[in-house]
Amino acid sequence: MTGNDKNRAYWKKNLQYLGILLAVWFIVSYGCAILFVNHLDKIKIGGFRLGFWFAQQGSIYVFVVLIFIYVCLMNRLDKQHGASDRQEEE
After folding, report:
1. What's the whole-model pTM score?
2. Which of 3, 13, 15, 41 is the most exposed place for a label (fewest CB within 10 A)?
């Protein structure tokens, strides 16, 4: 594989990760907090309706978790493609 092909494969995989993670974020923040709120409100967590919880807290927690997942995925992808920061310093 040439350098240009490696770069394309790297960015293709990066965009796949971004697309999947943004779709999850959209589904949780928009779907659970707005579209499915009536169905989720039938379930209670700590005395609060689940739809309300997703609108106020849940989507933020999911977003933070998605950031950590993205960091782990990108670290692994960088190592696979030889683009990690540690290799550049050596």
Report:
1. 0.75
2. 3
CA dist., res. 53 & res. 61, Å (int): 11
Q: What would you measure as the largest C-alpha separation in the chain, in angstroms?
A: 58
User: Does residue 90 or residue 24 have the better pLDDT?
Assistant: 24
Q: Which residue has the higher pLDDT, 54 or 85?
A: 54
> DSSP state, 43?
S
Residue 83 has, within 13 A of its CA and on its CB side, a CA count of: 14
Q: Contact at 8 Å (CB) between 15 and 75?
A: no
Question: Tokens representing 51?
Answer: 């739809």
Size of the chain, expressed as the number of residues it contains = 90
